[in-house]
């Protein structure tokens, strides 16, 4: 499957003008290629250290926005197709190369097989990358493997079950019958969905998906759209906009948004007329939430604290819990999640989600509503959490009705939960994976 990546295919290395002091001639010749260097760092971070892609990007000294975007795209493509590309090179290796070399090789394969980079550039830049990283002994191997792939990629790919290979076994099993559709969905780059501020007109050129949600093609920069500075909209995937919609009429209600930053759902709650307390534990993220609301001209009480230990002065009408989760629903944007998360992370997150549900119980008035949501595809973080909450006897499920989900009927489960995955709405560009359920507080 080819991905559209003019940015990477057009970026060639920039040979250094001057010889660096103390560098060998070869190193000096090949010292500047910020895109591949950053992509290499990102992929190594994920595969060697289980470090999230965004963490490496945040730490990077590469400033140029186009270089960062091209590096992100190259790294994301490599991570998305890691499993099948690994299988592709396997028969061409006589010995197992160290992981660092494998990262460089697969960056090359991604360029050849998925990004339409001209073979001489893909091979040459990987060889240079190895030289720059004191891995020159592997340059012959890279040359041989990548040249062979560039000549024979079609026949070498024959019979490979790409989708199956690109997903770690534990996730493939956990996704069950949804696995193929999910994988096909996450191969696509996510479009840009905007939620419109009350009364704002949609910027031209978008496709209206639902009331107040407009879709622009993948790669659209939100800051370049007219109306951004004026606060006419914010970025929010269609699926992510659904939990608040599913809270129904909330005008005038006292609501806490327990895990609030960067604030997409807080903005929806305030726009719908609720009195909102937004709680966020991380200070920098709370600052971002504040800035986002200011741009949109919306007001909420923002508290920087641990929602697990917060108690309102008077019981609340509703709580929105967009709980910390494995984020497997966001694989289109974050393919690193595939390789960073482990089954034990999901287990620990599920325990945390139960703790948040119990904390929410103490905040609500009797009959108050908990809207539970996670951007996860895992049963343990979705239906299983709700089943556990119901078994406690503290809650009653208020199923989402057919009318409430008339615009997305395939997202309604037989239990009355909301559940999406990246393969849904495929003809319009897909959507994130989300789970949501509505619980009502019962008397003890
Ligand atoms: C899934 S994100 C929330 C996205 C947000 N609801 C939105 O729509 O923009 C989870 C957030 O919860 C925050 N968080 C995690 N644990 C928390 C806690 N114990 N108390 C408050 N916030 C927490 C994280 O810092 C993160 O910003």
TrEMBL record:
Q: Where is this region: Disordered?
A: 1-28
Keyword S-adenosyl-L-methionine tagged = yes
- Keywords (A to Z) from UniProt: Methyltransferase, RNA-binding, S-adenosyl-L-methionine, Transferase
Q: What Pfam family is a match, any one?
A: NusB
Annotated S-adenosyl-L-methionine binding lies at 259-265, 280, 306, 322
The biological process GO terms on file are: regulation of DNA-templated transcription; RNA methylation
- Which residue numbers delimit the SAM-dependent MTase RsmB/NOP-type domain? 159-442
Q: Which residues form a coiled coil?
A: none
Domain of life the protein comes from = Bacteria
Family annotation (InterPro entries)? MeTrfase_RsmB-F_NOP2_cat, MeTrfase_RsmB-F_NOP2_dom, NusB-like_sf, NusB_RsmB_TIM44, RCMT, SAM-dependent_MTases_sf
Where are the bilayer-spanning segments?
none
Bias class Low complexity marks the residues at 1-13
Q: Active site located where?
A: 375 (nucleophile)
Q: Which Gene3D superfamilies match?
A: NusB-like, Vaccinia Virus protein VP39
Kindly list the GO molecular function terms attached to this UniProt entry: RNA binding; RNA methyltransferase activity
The reply to whether Transferase figures as a keyword in the UniProt entry is yes
The record's similarity note reads: Belongs to the class I-like SAM-binding methyltransferase superfamily. RsmB/NOP family.
Q: What is this protein called?
A: rRNA cytosine-C5-methylase
